[in-house]
Design brief:
8-stranded parallel beta sheet, mainly beta, 240 residues, 6% helix, 9-stranded mixed beta sheet
Length: 240
């Protein structure tokens, strides 16, 4: 039996949690079961910080409380195939029905649906994460507000790199690399007050940025505010 350690930082104390499993989780690229990490998240008090060590973690994560999750830059989270049909909740990481969540550094790759789903949540920050080679979108933001996607890479997904939809508002996407997705780099639909700046968006199979029935704060300067090139169907498309 191998052991890895997840560092759980409480608001007033720091606790080093030892997690064991039979999958060989640990630093240095070993493979492990995300059930151990999910158990730590479930046990954490609101406001705690959970740190993920380097390695490949297999499974799915669900966050429904105010937490900060800080991953080693070498931590990669991948999803197992669901027992039934893939749905939004088959994402590698689901943040739902909560507020005050910060995710830093981890890669959420190779998912059977979306890499990351943020749904019915507020005050969420995704900082320097990646979500690539997923079977649907890299990141989906639905029915959420005050969401920041800062830095990170979203590439090679089977649809859009990032999609914002379903009456989401006050979403900021900045400093990200979005390339070689089968859909658009960024697609915004039926949402309000979205800001898109400082991104590198290239070589996507549809558009660099697609805006549908939505308001974008920097719409007038969006082409200048981002590096957009070599997208197959065009740089920026607006509908509605």
């Amino acid at each position: 039996m191998n052991y890895s350690r997840l560092l759980l930082t409480l608001p007033l104390a720091t606790l080093l949690v030892g997690c064991s499993n039979d999958s060989g989780t640990g630093p240095g690229g070993d493979s492990g079961d995300l059930a151990t990490l999910q158990a730590t998240i479930d046990a954490a008090a609101p406001g705690a910080t959970v740190r993920i060590p380097a390695g490949t973690w297999e499974g799915r994560l669900l966050v429904t409380k105010n937490l900060t999750i800080e991953a080693d830059p070498a931590a990669v989270l991948v999803a197992r195939s669901p027992s039934g049909s893939a749905t939004d909740d088959s994402a590698v990481l689901v943040i739902r029905n909560t507020s005050g969540v910060v995710i830093e550094n981890a890669a959420f790759d190779g998912g059977v649906d979306n890499g990351i789903l943020v749904r019915n949540a507020s005050d969420v920050t995704l900082r320097n994460v990646s979500a690539s080679n997923n079977r649907d979108h890299g990141v989906v933001v639905r029915e959420s507000e005050n969401v920041v996607i800062e830095g990170g890479t979203f590439a090679g997904n089977d649809d859009d790199g990032i999609r914002v939809r379903d009456s989401s508002q006050n979403v900021r996407i900045t400093g990200a690399a979005l390339e070689s997705n089968a859909g658009s780099g960024i697609r915004v639909r039926d949402s309000q007050t979205v800001t898109i700046t400082g991104n590198e968006i290239r070589a996507n199979a549809e558009y660099g940025i697609r805006i549908e029935n939505s308001s974008v704060v920097n719409d007038a300067t969006i082409a200048d505010d981002n590096q957009i090139d070599q997208n197959v169907r065009g740089g920026v498309r607006r509908d509605g």
